[in-house]
Specification:
Blueprint: H1 6-31, E1 37-44, E2 52-61, E3 67-74, E4 78-80, E5 84-86, E6 91-100, E7 107-120, E8 123-130, E9 134-136
Length: 137
């Protein structure tokens, strides 16, 4: 004798299937190695302290997602520039940007570019690139 009727058993199996599928999807979203952008290089052209800096970045974008881009000058202290949202087309690209910078104290710095991508509803991936160190007098 069965305790559950046929529709109740079908509903139970369907519910178990939905639970396993959703757990598999969450596992996939959480642990898949996403790479929305691959940066080949980033360079800085000469600039004067307190004026504009020009940086050039070559990249391969693999996913059509917008990024929250932050730029920083680092030398023990972190000087953060305003965050922007950018969405470059998928494929190879090379961009040149000018950024107005504050007057920085003398020292050895490097410039760091970071793009934060929301790759799915539960995860964000951050891509970071740094220039070689340079001196500000």
């Amino acid at each position: 004798m069965n305790i559950l009727s046929l529709p109740q058993r079908i509903l139970g199996y369907a519910l178990i299937a939905v639970i396993f599928i959703s757990q598999g999807l969450m596992f996939y979203w959480a642990f898949w190695p996403y790479e929305p952008l691959k940066i080949e290089y980033i360079t800085i052209q000469d600039f004067k302290n307190g004026e504009c800096i020009t940086y050039k970045m070559k990249f391969i974008k693999k996913m059509d997602l917008p990024a929250e881009v932050s730029k920083q000058f680092i030398n023990g202290y972190i000087i953060t520039l305003p965050t922007i949202t950018a969405n470059y087309p998928v494929g190879e690209g090379c961009t040149t940007h000018q950024v107005e910078i504050p007057k920085l104290p003398p020292g050895n710095y490097y410039f760091q570019w970071s793009g934060r991508y929301r790759v799915n509803p539960i995860r964000e991936v951050t891509v970071t690139a740094r220039t070689p160190r340079f001196e500000i007098k």
